Amino acid sequence: MNLQKRLFNSLWKSILLMLILICLPSFGVSQEKLTVKKIYNSPDFHGKSISQIQWTPDKKAFTYFATNAKTGDLQVWRYELKSGKRKLLISSKKVPQLQSPARQKRFTLPSYYLSPNGKDVLLPSANDLYLYNLKSKNVLQLTNDADQERDPRFSPDGKSIAFLKNHNLWLLKIADGNAKQLTISGQEHVMIGRFDWVYEEEFGIRTGFFWSPDGKKIAFFRIDERPEPKFPVVDFIPTHNTVEWEYYPLAGDKNGIVKIGVVTIKTQNVTWMDIGKKIDIYIPRIKWLQNSRTLAIQRLNRLQNKIEVLLADIKTGRSHVILTETRKNGWININRDWTFFKDGKHFLWSSNSTGFKHFYLYDLNGRKIRQITTGRWDAGGLIGVDQKKKWLYFTADKKSPLERHFYKIKLSGKGLTRLTIQTGTHSLTASRNFNYFLDTFSNVTTPPQIILLDASGRRVRMVNNEKIPALKKYKFATPEFIKITLYDTLQLNAYMIKPLDFDPAKKYPVLIYTYGGPGSQTVTNRWGNGWGNLWHQLMVQRGYILFSVDNRGTGARGAAFQFLVYKNIGGYSVDDQIAAARYLSRLPYVNPRRIGIWGWSGGGYMTLMCLLKGADVFSTGVAVAPVTDFRNYDTIWTERYMQTPQLNPKGYEVSSTLKYAQNLKGKLLILHGLSDNNVHFANTVQLIQKFQKLNKPFDVMVFPRKKHSIRGKDARMFLFEKMTAYFLKNL
Length: 731
Description:
Blueprint: H1 2-23, H2 36-41, E1 51-55, E2 61-67, E3 74-80, E4 86-91, E5 102-104, E6 107-109, E7 113-114, E8 120-125, E9 128-133, E10 139-141, E11 150-154, E12 160-165, E13 168-173, E14 179-181, E15 190-192, H3 197-203, E16 209-211, E17 217-224, E18 230-235, E19 242-247, E20 257-264, E21 270-272, E22 281-288, E23 294-301, E24 306-313, E25 319-326, E26 339-340, E27 346-351, E28 358-363, E29 368-371, E30 379-386, E31 391-396, E32 405-410, E33 417-418, E34 425-430, E35 436-443, E36 446-454, E37 459-465, E38 480-486, E39 490-497, E40 508-513, H4 534-541, E41 545-549, H5 559-562, H6 572-585, E42 590-600, H7 602-613, E43 620-624, H8 635-642, H9 649-654, E44 667-673, H10 682-693, E45 699-703, H11 713-730
Parallel strand pairs: 40-41, 40-42, 42-43, 43-44, 44-45
Antiparallel strand pairs: 1-2, 2-3, 3-4, 5-6, 7-8, 8-9, 9-10, 11-12, 12-13, 13-14, 15-17, 16-17, 17-20, 18-19, 20-21, 22-23, 23-24, 24-25, 26-27, 27-28, 28-29, 30-31, 31-32, 32-33, 34-35, 35-36, 36-37, 38-39, 39-41
Helix pairs in contact: 6-7
């Protein structure tokens, strides 16, 4: 009896324990599912971040901008490199002139500028400029008028500030507060020191004027956008609609006319640099040489398959070519990697002329001294050159196309060393003397962190860990990086996110996320591709498999892989996405009748093309702000990959969604901002008309007063609620 009693008691305790465990929620896993409202309304999904990092002139610290989470105060802090101590420099509570960073087109404008002497901080505020002294804590108002002072820049000695006003370049001397106009040729639509829409968007440049190292001259861009056609951006909300006209050259149209000038501060005399007789060209970059007598200029032809480096004498404007590169079956990628050395004899250049992007050392006669980096991998962005110690610092995909790591190598080409260890994506900035580096790091399960490294790559300390409170409440599914083989021999990089309760015996619907444009990547080991993409996690929680693949033409696979889509963006890239969907349909745990796809902008184009050319594979698609015909898109981006419609009419025809509109069988939702000045709403209207003529059913949702990014919490929430409901109903 005692044995039976002990067995009974033991069994009863086990049953009780099981009941308790069943009733208790799983530790660390929320029983609630993600919702779009939670994603956009809850602060739990957003970490504390810092921005606008600037290295101090004394080389002992850096400064950064942050917002106090409790009080909402805007703040500028100083971070000591050796000790890690932080000191509050400016707070909007006491200095209301400190403003939040302003968003302008594709750029975020700085809200503060450190002076070269480190004693003052320039604060743009309410169209005027203010100078805050860090010692006295006094604020000096430098300008006081109704006109906006744009893009202020300290002179090298910190005694003057150059800025843009009323379409021209101005100079203000801090000591006496006097301001004078340096140029007079600027006027409405003739821009001095700034860019038209297409230059800013496609060459990634905002500042169009640059001080000479000796502080006596300023080189500047002048762009006359008047030859470009104007496009209406209509606001339909007022009873009487209003129109904003924007200069926007479509593929094959006339571009603006660019000139490069140099103004002498003392005399206000302007010398125009000789950039050649042809006006149908691009000048994507200019740079001063250390002697302050010579200006380097990059000249790119209209088709963007030939680039030249010119050296111009700033006194006479005369120039000569020292370097020329051409591509027969591809294009030139523009970057910021070129650097002219202090010795006045050499410069650094990057090129993919050997098939992969690498760094090269040249002399000023254009003679190649040596190739510094080599291998079947792409050197990424230049971090800097320590000319004293002869080290070159850069990022690269050498370890994996899915990752970006930090490397250094001697200018001799020896001593290549990887300085970052953590698996994922690293982005670096260097201190002025290259003794320290700030590494912004993330991977699919790690939110962005900012880590201080020394020159050997040794981790000094964590500077900022963007902790996401919700990670303690939710358990997210982790992406699985895979390689898929198409057409028997083509291997492509992809990732797949399966539901946490994945059962290989079940059949799951698949949602493909796509972009696929030339040189792009969606398959990388970074935060936004994993736990950081909350809407993708929401869909995975709803029982969908999330999938993404990098098709031919995308980045980190060498030039030949990219150039496969040259003159036909709608060819191999779209074919690969469709073939990848067919690959998925053959997997035992995928429901082949429930494969959907979505994307934004270029991804919206890819979504439409896949739904039309792969109508037998895809059942549902959502295209946000899609290009529908590349004759509707801008000159620089489109012609880089497609040439002009006049030279390549067949390529434009077969890359247009309108050509395949009759194939539509699945469910399609198009979402577009009516004020989109990047991918004009005309793209969607043209496809709507085509579908209506063909009697093809589809769905569309428009967003009044919203541009390409459809910004704003309410608009984003509405957009993703609509997308969620659409896929849940139709996929």
